[in-house]
Amino acid sequence: MTDSELITLIRSSPEKGYRAMVKIYGNYVYAVVMNRVRNIAAETDVQECVSDVFIEILKKAQNLDEEKGTIKSFAGKVASARATDLYRRLTRSYSRTADENEFEQLVSNIKPEDETERKLESIFLWNKVTELGSPDSDILIMQYFYRMKAAEIAARLSMSTAAVNKRSLRARKKLKKILEERGGYFE
Fold it and tell me: Could you tell me what percent of the chain has a pLDDT over 90?
């Protein structure tokens, strides 16, 4: 579907246009938002932000001009702006809720050598996960870093839920073998 067809559809039937827009640009907008708030936002915050992006695009669709740019570029700009707003809102709320005494106590219990070892192990694990290759690494990342269910992963990767579960199991077995050869990871 071209941009002009999509704009016409949005103007004639906002509901159908919204669905088409989400189908075409949903993964792109999700990726833009997730890239900005990956380590701070919960999945529900991300989904809400993505919905807000599409609602804003839908509201402004009446005034979209193809000569000023594509819908994709507009969606990217809106997604980036909303994700930045979400990031700022979440970091402000986290900084307000932190108790200084609790923070000092937490920091005093962390030894630099332990923290360094933990980071090195995390880097090692991340490298081994990415070495598994696609779609195995994608499945594990979505499961354990984004906390997505097998059905959600299956929909994103155009696979069956059973295939996702089977690949996840095989990938975890490969990782376990690698970690055991290294002398253990989770000691």
Answer: 7
